[in-house]
Amino acid sequence: MPCVFRNASILDCAPECDTLVSASNSRLCFDGGSDLDYTTLFDDPHDAMYAKLKSFWDSHNKVFGECSAVHLPVGAAMIHDYGTHKFIAAPTMILPQPVPDTENAYFAFKAVLELVERDSTIQDVLVPGLCTGIGRMNIAKSAEQILKAWMDHEAGVRNDVLSRKDFVYDPRAMQQQPDVYMNTMYTQACEFVTNTDLLPVVSAETGSKLWY
């Protein structure tokens, strides 16, 4: 699975990719940062993505912990067909805020890779900068985390408690969030996981290409 780094705009790259990644917040609000370029080119995916998340949330009790607010945690990612594209939400923050001292870029990119490997139809994936905008993470630090996620993934490292074709989740990320979230409903670990639908990993030898 080759990786290409490009210094270019999302508006230029998105049309040539079949899968788009959003470094969104946990509430799936695509109204800031790199997401604005997606909504310029395509319709806002919020309603469709939130409806899918809400359905999953209601049918998988406490899979993301004790929090009553429907959200996709940092460390989780989901994929959804949206028009002619696939859309992956991989939150890099719970709510819009600086996250420079976290490993959120690592966890977000790792989750993206685990979804991509399960879908052999994916050919080209566009990933924007992770945590480098509102998240205020140094670009070099973000790149180091992305590289580490890639190397760990290729080495077979898997720490998910939820591993499906459309949802993945590594709960370790939520214990590293800014102090405002510590010891709150957002960071309480899940008690159990149901209906994980574990799937065999699709071989990476599919010709898929990951754009960053």
Structure description:
The structure is a single chain. The chain is an alpha/beta fold. It has an 8-stranded mixed beta sheet with strand order 1-8-5-2-4-3-7-6, sandwiched between helices. It starts with a strand and ends with a strand. The C terminus is likely disordered.
Primary descriptors:
212 residues; alpha/beta; Leucine Aminopeptidase, subunit E, domain 1; 8-stranded mixed sheet; 14% strand; disordered C terminus
CATH class: Alpha Beta
**Count, helices:** 5
CATH architecture: 3-Layer(aba) Sandwich
Question: Helix/strand/pairing class, anyone?
Answer: alpha/beta
Global shape = globular
Helix content: 25-40%
CATH topology: Leucine Aminopeptidase, subunit E, domain 1
Strand content: 5-15%
Q: What does the radius of gyration come to? A: 16 Å
Span from first to last CA? 12 Å
Low-confidence stretches: 189-212
Biggest sheet, strands in spatial order?
A: 1-8-5-2-4-3-7-6
How many DSSP E strands?
8
Summarize the main sheet.
8 strands, mixed
- What is the N-to-C order of secondary-structure elements (H for helix, E for strand)? EHEHHEEHEHEEE
Protein name: Macro domain-containing protein
InterPro entries: Macro_dom-like (IPR043472)
